[in-house]
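Homework help board

Subject: predicted structure for assignment chain

Our instructor gave us this sequence and asked us to write out the predicted structure in token form, then describe one feature. I got the tokens but I'm not sure how to describe them. Can anyone check?
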Amino acid sequence: MSGEHTSAVGGQAVITQTDSGEHTEGCDTENSMMQQKDEEESSKQLSAEIYYNYEELHSRPSITPNSEIPENLLHLSHSFGYDSGRRGNLQLLDDRTLIFIAGNLLVLLDISTKEQRYLRSCSGGGIGSIMAHPSKEYFVVAEKGNQPNIIIYEYPSLRLSRILRGGTERAYSFVDFNHDGSLLASVGSAPDYMLTLWDWRKEEVMLSCKAVSQEVYRVSFSPYNPGLLTSSGSGHIKFWKMASTFTGPKLQGLMGHFGKTAATDIEGYVELPDGKVVSGTDWGNLLLWDGNAIKVEICRKGGRNCHTGMVQPFALEDGQLMTIGSDGVVRGWDSESIDTADSNSDSSRFEIEPMNEMVVGHNVCISSVVKSSLPDSFIWFAQDSSGAIWKLDLSFTNTTPDPECLFSFHAGAIQGLDVSRKSHLMATVALDRSVKVFDFLAKRELTTSRFNQGGTALSWAPPLVNQTGGLLVTGFEDGVVRLLELYDPQRLHLVTGRRPKGDAKLRLKQAFKPHNAPVTAVAFERNGEILATGSSDSTVFFFTVGEKYNPIGFVHVPGPVQALEWSPHSHSENRLLILCQNGHVVEVQSPDPEAHKPTKTFQLPEIPSRTFRFRSIKSRIKREEEIARCQAVKEKKKKVREERLKESKQLDAEQEEEEEEEGELPPIHFPDPPSPLYCGFYSQPGQFWLSMGGFDSGFLYHCKFSEKQDQDPDQRQDEPFDFRPVHNTDNDPIRSITFSSNRQLLLCGMHSGFIRVYPLQPGDHCLTSMQAYWALSVHDNQYGHLRHIRCSHDDLFVLTAGDDGNIFSFSLLPPEELQKGLQRKRAEVPSPRVGIENEALAQDIENPAAYSIETAKQKLEKDRLRREADVKIAAKRNKLAELQKTFKQLLNNNQSLPEHVRLSPVELQLDRRFSEQAERVKAQRVREVRKQMAWEEERCSIALSKLQDWFRDSLEANMVTVVAICTDHRVSTYRLPTLTEPLTQLKHQSRPGWPDRDGAAAPESRKTRAEPAKDCSTLEEEEVLRPPVARPAGIKLADRQVERLRKAAEKAEQARAKIEKRKQEWAQLYAEKPNEDCEDPQDVQAINEAKENIGDLKLKSAKDFTVPKHLRMNAERKRAELIGLEENIRERQTKMNGRIVALRDSKIRLVSQLRAQAQQVQRVQQRLAAHLHRSPPALPNILPEETPEKRLQYSHATLERYRVLREQRFKSMEQEEQEGSSRLLEQLEKEMEGVVGKEEVEEERGDEMTPGLSASSVTRREVKKETDGQEGAEQNQLEEELQREEEIRLLHEQDSLLEQMERSVCEFDAELLLLRHQKLRLDWELKLADLHQLTLYQELLLLKEFERREDSLQEKLNGRFGEENSITSKLEECNEQLDLKLGDIAKLQERERALIAAFHASLGEENKFEEFLTKVFKKKIKRVKKKEQTGSEEEEDSDEDSDEDDDWDDDDDDYDSSTEEGGPALDTNVCPPGCDPVLFENTLQLRERRLDLEELLAEEKKSAEALKKECDTLVKKRKSVKVIRKAVEDDLELVNREKQQKMNELDVVVPLRLNQIEFITNGSVPSDLSPALVLDRTELSRLQERIKQLQAEKNEQRDLYYQARQQHVRLIHDRKDMDSKIQVLEKQCNQLMMMKFGRLVDLEALQTLSGNRTLEELKQEKLLREAAYAREIKQWDAKVQEARQALMEVTRCNTERLLSMTILLDQKKELEQKLSARQKKMGRQFKDYRRRVDQEEIVRLRELVKTQSQQAEVLRREIGLLSRKGGRVLPPCQAQLPPLAPMPTPRNHSYTSKQGQGRSSKQLKVQNSPSRQGAT
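My token output:
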């Protein structure tokens, strides 16, 4: 900035940062109260008088810390470029100041003085967009970088007024103010595309949301409605509205829908007053938007475009809509007509002609315009993308001046830059076809020259080449190199007297074309004797330097040339270093112009060269750095551990820590493709430095050529021997390098547009002092790659040029010192050469297709050889013709001689030895020629075979085209390739299945395991010995009772069988009963069918979509599907080809038939008069394309004709070789077709004429005979009638033949037309099939990628399934065995209980030896283990026997001690006296059986426990296997889901007509069809029908559900009723059992009770006793009767007493009432006491009544029970009734009388009477 600006800013306050800006995510801007308060406070702080300090905020150079490099190392001098390709890169601040972006600078350009002022970006990352305030008092600079800011400057003070933060992530693409300038809209670029509205004076975000997901070019406020905005960009336009919602203001966007109009990028638009928007398009028409839809497309009359190319409207003034276009034209349109435009046709177009038009220029491309700030001004300033700024007067009047080009610049990237070695001059070249020369000292452009092609390289010739320093060498994109002379035209007037314009001029000195591709580098040899040019065609050409540059030759290099570097004077040899873009480096010796004299070619094959191919070492460097870092860390920790170990001496800890330090190292990586080579330079002879891009950036590599140079350059792998790391350049490689003249400064141009300066030590070729650096961001950081950097000849200036089109000059001295030092100096333009004005202009090469030097040389050499060969051939032919002529003359002379003198033919022949010698020479030459042509012959034969295989043998048949006869319709067959081996042999191998080895092994294992298991059911059911029980001998049963016992046993057996059968039925019924969670099989089947048919309702693109197993696709199925589709396509094509060939054959037959009919017509017409003839239809011919098989058939005549035509072509040398050969074949083909056609026609005519001639001759002869016989005789009437009849018949025959011919032709044409329609239909279907085939192939490739993973997971899953099945089978087998064991144990326990019951039954009742026998039965004795029959008996251990003996002895002792006192001790092994020996022996046997059962039971329990443990182990194992299987299934499911997602990402082409698209929004088809669904119309109709069916089914299911629910409720009620009935019946059954048995009994057991003799005897004894008891009861009944009589008497007495007591109580009550009345007057002290006594008495009486009622109820139940029992069964014992407490009498009552005492005594008697009765 200028000093004035610095002083203006210095007096203001400094604000570092404000926090008023709010980040918002989305469109909602609702804030809390605290945030509002903060914003209010911040807004109060930001007053209009507060500014930021620009000097503290703008970006500065970055300098290595602790270095002595000054911050102001380079000072910006001037900007010579203009980024004209940037959108909106021109704004107007006032009527004389323009601003635009130049890299990291904002340039303020004075239009009149052309002076420039600069503002640097604050972020250092570049500037994204600029905009001027409507009042022109402010302008906005929106920057780029990480979280960039928007800087608002005040104008003209250029003070930094506001900073807006947080509007986007990376860069701003556009900013704009609203109409009054109070709001600012900004839109960001990728990745967020955030649209933000700012209250910029408060630095606040008002609204913010994401605009779109595409690049946005422009956003603006509506000039008519402040709440509306519009944005446009790549393929979209969007209309925004600031809406108020209940959550606060929001931005609501509506995307514009293009509908039927093709989507286009919209660069500009204009809003009309009524809200409509007019936008531009890519193709030059305007679009009128109404709402978010296109109302009409606007074009010119006749459908012409409004502009050629891109168009954008920019203003609406004075009723005109102004538009600009890439065609360089400004047009004005009637805005009212456009506003009311409506389409009148189906094309939705509105035609209109412009009102005014201005053509700015022919090579002009206007991209933006700004209007002058002066009121009522028509002046506009236009940005030209071709590199210019124009001043336009758009008043469109008669006095309107022409457009004025104010400034011109390069357009696009700068391709070449160099400086003069003698003056402060700079030359540049770009692809805009211009070469410019600048005076960077005077900061102005000197001259510009334009050419037909864009420039790609430039070099300023050193003084050794041109002493005046005025020679430029430029390379162009068409391979042309031009030598341009720079001179001062003002000095020409000394010679010519003319004064031309301009201070400098470029003149073409020489032009030559050494390359066929763009020239990428030019360089002069160090002595100035040779010029080298390199190109992207991988060649380097050498020229001699002089007045005229002559070619020496060229060499081939392994890749496109990037740069050329000649060895400096310090090197002993003169060599050229060639740097290739693909990483190859070639060093060649300087060629000697005298030694290399080109003869046939300019190629220099023998020139010495060395090659180097760069091999990446960056990954190894990183790996070594990581190893060194880890080693340093280890060493550091090791020292710490050693110090610690000296104290603790813990070696184990040291080892553990060392193991923990091991980590992963970076892998070795080689980039593929190799990294590009950007630049390089010599260090020492044979050594050089390289700067690489891509992966290998970040280092400078020191390389040298290897000694072994015999290897193929493409196979070499050379590594650098040294490197220098370049700080912070892993993603920012060095693009260009240059040195100062003293090589103490190394200047680097970076990929990011930075300039770096490294100070170096003198003579430091190894760059060891390349450490500290100075860096400054100059060019655009995204696309302004700094590819050219140079120092001036005096090292006072540094010049840079980048791909952003900007050119900067920097001075190494401050501006003040520079002006003082150079105030007397100026850049000197070289003077013109003497005589230059008289020299003719050099011939330029303007044709891009012109021959290069080498191509022209090869062409001339080829033409020379061809001419020499033709001359020799002509001489030989002339000589041969003379010899033939002489020989013929000799023959004639010989024939004229007499016969005896005449020589015979044999004598005329030469000596046989001459012919033999000639034959030998000819054979030798033929062999030599064949040997020479062997390779060519083999090549041609192979080429022929390949051509035949590809074009003829690769097809099943030739392409046949059948043409209609009367129309131009034709139909052709398909080209079908021959069927070779099948592309893929589809192996129908199943996927890895579940192995069944375990399943097969399971039965065997079951058998083997079941064998040792001992089935207890096989044990013999031993009968329990039941010894006869001693019964009293006096009771005997009668025969009748015995019979009844037998019948009872049979009845019990029948009942037992019936009960068993009923149990089985119940078990079967319960087995058939479904579980609570069981479902109806029919319902399950219906659900499965629904799942299979309906499928997953989720879309396949859903994240949770699971592919059904039967729909999962693999590579084999997809391959089968693909093959099936190919076979179907081929089958249909083959079928169609067969029909077309059949139609061709029918045409051939039809043609022959028509020819035969034509012959018949001719014969008929020969017999008719000429005036009766009808012209027959033209006979069709079989075209060559209808019989292509005859095309390759050739004859000797064809070959001879080809030879003749070839000789004729050699005679005419005007045409090209290839063109001539192709025309020769075409001519031969046409001639042979004509010859063949003529021959066929002649043959047909001959065939036709032969029978006609014969017939006519016969007819004539007959007629002649008739005339001869009837000469002179008159024809009678009969003959005339016969002639008329014959004539009628012939006419009818003629008509029928012609009609038949026409009908045949029409039928054939109709058949061909029908077949053509069918083929077109098939073509459409095949095209869809091809698209489907492409999709299937893409899916197949995708499935192949997943096949290996899926197969491995499926194999794992199958293994887990097999393992799980094996474990499950083993577990089932184990459970079965365990169930068997448990059953056996239950049976053994049942037998044990039965054995114990039998023992107790054998004891009988009241057996005095019961205790002894029980002890004998339960005694444990020593038993010898029983062995298997196959095994041998083993001896028992003596210690165990002794222990067991001791145990049994202890038992005996216990029993002895338990005997009765005083009784003798009993031995359990001996039957005691008095005991039944049989019973004792039976007890011993039962004991043995008990012990056997206990042993068996112990064994079974032991084996059952083992089985249970095994089951638990298997269950755990199965659980773990299930977990593993579930994990594998989840992995497989993830793979399938990923595969489905990848398949969903594939694009599928579905051609649709507009009537097939029903996805319509607001009456138009939206541009975004991603949410639409594509389905078949038949499927859609089926789904619609299915909806109706589902509704009917739903109603039906609802009815069924209602009926089922009613039935369910009814069944529930029925079940409840049944349950209640069952409960009632159970209660009745229990009552009946209680009544009958006195307790609840088991009826089944009761039914199965068989007759028991003991029971019968007991019953008999019971009967006898009952009889005795009955007699005794009868006696007691009589006594009871007497007692009852006495009781009745006592009861009657007691009743009388109760009555009297009642009367007394009533009297007492009356007395108490009277007494209470008298005592009312007395004190209240007796009142409460009396009331309490009365209440206690009432409570006591109530308790008494309750107790009496309970006693009465007990008595009633007792009486009822006794009455039901009938007196035979005694009632159960009743609990004793609680005694009645005697009724207390109040002792304190003074009024108690004797009457009361008597009443109480009577009452006690009455109370005690029931108890006495009960006792009796």
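Reply (TA_rk): Your tokens look well-formed. For the description, you could write something like this. The chain has a mean pLDDT of 81. That's the kind of observation they're looking for.
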